[in-house]
């Protein structure tokens, strides 16, 4: 008897990184893909099944019920730091509860392999609510693995992505478009260091994970191009021949300067009182209360 066909689920597979992963999976593997997203592609691929569904939806189970899945590539998220500052509730709901809903669906349907797109900001004091959401998602995934013996994950923390068809908030795309328009506004002083990686290289790292010893590990994916932001501006000034002005907005504090990693000393104090209740006497009082509640009633 032939085994039932198995699929691979890609959440956020229409987005910048998710779409690159879909292309790489199609070119490098023989997997059959189901893409789950809240937007549909302008040019859908014939050999991909697209489903319009929010990860937070209670209809997730019914939307996916006709397919049997072997693994999930989870790239669906609200990924803009500035948006997360303005729309904190939506960001936390989309990223955290969307991930929790997906994990619960995986548990119920015995889907035991997850590849998760996190961020270099997840281990940082910066990155606003976006960073908080990614850190929380990582913890949820790891706790899920502790409770389910067969479940495994690989978490990817991506550096600064660039490439064609980037989101409107992508740093490189934004600088290019602003350069063409004649006015560039940079969040920061320009000395911020980034390790830029092309989206197709990042996608390649994701797809090879299945064949690496990355089970239940966190993998940092950055590129070889370690440059200051002002160096990118200088490159653009040579590529784009028309002149443009540059304004550095140093009031922006949600982005890191040289490294996203931070060890933050927490403002925690231990309260010490002059007098305390006696533990032994209190235990006796609690026992007396419990015994009284268990005394049978007798009618006279």
Question: Can you characterise this structure?
Answer:
The protein has 300 residues and is an alpha/beta fold. It has helices at 16-28, 60-64, 81-86, 88-108, 128-147, 171-181, 199-208, 229-239, 279-293, and strands at 6-11, 33-37, 48-52, 68-74, 113-119, 152-158, 160-162, 183-187, 193-198, 217-221, 225-228, 245-249. Helix 1 (16-28) packs across helix 7. The protein is globular and about 100 Å long.
Give a brief rundown of this model.
37% of the residues lie in helices and 22% in strands.
Features:
12 strands; alpha/beta; 300 residues; 37% helix; 7-stranded parallel sheet; 3-stranded mixed sheet; 22% strand
Low-confidence stretches: none
Structural class: alpha/beta
Radius of gyration: 25 Å
Find the count of extended strands (DSSP E, 2+ residues): 12
Q: What share of residues are in beta strands?
A: 15-25%
> If strands are numbered along the chain, what order do they take across the biggest sheet?
3-2-1-4-5-6-10
Relative helix content: 25-40%
Mean pLDDT: 90
Question: For the report, how would you describe the main beta sheet?
Answer: 7 strands, parallel
